[in-house]
Structures are given as structure tokens and as C-alpha cells.
Design goal:
Blueprint (H helix, E strand, L loop, with lengths): L1 E6 L10 E10 L6 E4 L5 E10 L3 E8 L6 H9 L26 E3 L1 E5 L6 E5 L8
Antiparallel strand pairs: 1-5, 1-6, 2-3, 2-4, 4-5, 7-8
Length: about 130
């Protein structure tokens, strides 16, 4: 489970709404970027709006699959790119890192089957993103 903050249009009422996104994600140009393509879906996410202000919204993102940049591409596909994303919706020119404006994407909890022990593993954090 992840959290993300995105800019929204004034007047949109998104709280409590949920979107299920299934599409095909492939490499783009430059190669480290991804894009949605025609064909059988290879990515799946469930996204829900938790809170919003007039300009921003806090989303809960649950990836069902794990494609490169999947959550970033799915948020862009919904029309709400993640705040401070240098790659989506458009690759930004190379510049010095700006640690005062980090990508507003947070891994809240990760659960998976350990490939070595075959046991379930779960990691979580107490941090949350804030709309303030």
C-alpha cells in the first residue's frame, strides 16, 4: 500500500471514490520511462482518494502487479500525476536534486512472499503524507 499526493482541479469531489486500472505498460523513450500501450493488460492497481483540499488530493494506491513506474503511470492515466514527479507526465530537464520538493509517493506497507524462505513478509511504516 502506498500514498501519493496529486494536484487536482478546483471543484472536483474525489473523496471516497475508487478506480481500478488495468492496462499494458511498456518501455518508452528514454528507456527508463514507461507508457501505456495497446494490448493485453500486464499491470493492475486499485486507487482510492482519502482526502482532498481545493488544489490537492491524498490517494491510497494498491498495486496488484509490480511493473516499473506502475503507480506513477496509473496516476498519470487518471489525470492526476504525482506531485513533484520529474518523469511523468513529462520528463523534466536534468537539474540539481531539490530535496525541498520530493516526489510525493510513500510506501506505507509492503507485503510479499520471501523468494528464499517462501514465508510471507510484511513491512510497514508510521509515516503518512500530509496535504498541509
Amino acid at each position: 500500500t502506498y500514498q501519493a499526493i496529486a494536484q487536482i482541479s478546483d471543484g472536483e469531489n474525489l473523496i471516497g471514490q475508487e478506480w481500478e486500472i488495468k492496462n499494458r505498460i511498456v518501455r518508452s523513450n528514454p528507456r527508463f520511462c514507461m507508457r501505456v500501450s495497446e494490448g493485453e493488460a500486464n499491470s493492475h492497481s486499485v486507487i482510492r482518494c482519502l482526502q482532498q483540499t481545493t488544489e490537492k488530493a491524498l490517494f491510497e494506491l494498491n498495486p496488484v502487479t509490480g511493473k516499473t513506474h506502475q503507480l506513477r503511470v496509473h496516476m498519470r492515466a487518471l489525470g492526476w500525476p504525482i506531485l513533484n514527479d520529474k518523469y511523468y507526465p513529462q520528463l523534466q530537464p536534468l537539474s540539481a536534486d531539490n530535496y525541498s520538493a520530493p516526489l510525493q509517493l510513500l510506501a506505507k506497507a509492503l507485503t510479499f512472499i520471501d523468494p528464499v524462505t517462501q514465508k510471507p513478509r510484511h513491512f510497514s511504516c508510521d509515516r503518512s503524507l500530509s496535504l498541509k
